Amino acid sequence: MASSKKVITREEWEKMLCSVKMRKEDMNKLVMNFLVTEGFVEVAEKFQLETGTEHIDLATITDRMAVKRAVQSGNVEDAIEKVNDLNPEILDTNPLLFFHLQQQRLIELIRNGKIKEALEFAQEELAPRGEENHCFLEELERTVALFAFEDVSNCPVSDLLDISQRLKTASEVNAAILTSQSHEKDPKLPHLMKILIWAQNHLDEMASYPRITDWSTTTLEDPSL
C-alpha cells in the first residue's frame, strides 16, 4: 500500500530553509546566553570580542563558577561564604536553598567520618529548620538516616553520598545566583534543541522529508520515496 505521506524533496526543503530569515545578532545572543549560563568564561570573553555582542560583566561568571566548584568538591562552608560575598540576599530570601546547602554540609561531615560533629550540626542547625518548616522534614529524616548505618555506602539512602547529590545542590545554587543577577537560570539552546527534536518527530507522522539523522553535524538524510 502506497504511503499517504507528503514527500518533500531536498531541493524544496532547502528552499524553505533559506526562506527563513535569522538575524546574526539573535544567533550570537543565543550562543552568549549558553556560554554565560554554563560558565565558559574564556570562551565567552573571546566570543564577545569577536562578535561585538552586548557587554556582560564576565567577572560575575568567574565568581559564580567558584561557588559551583566549591559545592561540587564538598566545600560547602566555603561556598556559603562565597555566595554571601556575592549577594547575602540570595540565601536570606531563599530558605530552601540554604537548607539544601546545610543538608549538603551535613552529608559531607558524614562522608568524612566526622560523626560527632555531624550529630551536633544536625541538632543545632538542621533540626530547628525542620521544626519551623515541615517541607524540610522528609529530606532531613532521609539525611539523618545515614547515622543508623555503619556502612553508609550500602544503605537505603546511599544516593545522598553520590556525586549526583553534590551536582544537584551546585546546580540549585548556580540557578539562584543567575536569577539574582537578572540572568535566565537555564540556557535557551538545549530547550530549543528539544523543541526541534519534538517538531521533527511530529513531522515524521505527516511527511517524508530530508530529516536530521546526526544532531552533532545536522546531517540531512534524503526522504524515502
From TrEMBL:
<dbReference type="InterPro" id="IPR024964">
    <property type="entry name" value="CTLH/CRA"/>
</dbReference>
<dbReference type="InterPro" id="IPR006594">
    <property type="entry name" value="LisH"/>
</dbReference>
<dbReference type="InterPro" id="IPR050618">
    <property type="entry name" value="Ubq-SigPath_Reg"/>
</dbReference>
<dbReference type="InterPro" id="IPR006595">
    <property type="entry name" value="CTLH_C"/>
</dbReference>
<dbReference type="Pfam" id="PF08513">
    <property type="entry name" value="LisH"/>
</dbReference>
<dbReference type="InterPro" id="IPR013144">
    <property type="entry name" value="CRA_dom"/>
</dbReference>
<feature type="domain" description="CTLH">
    <location>
        <begin position="60"/>
        <end position="117"/>
    </location>
</feature>
<protein>
    <recommendedName>
        <fullName>CTLH domain-containing protein</fullName>
    </recommendedName>
</protein>
<dbReference type="Pfam" id="PF10607">
    <property type="entry name" value="CTLH"/>
</dbReference>
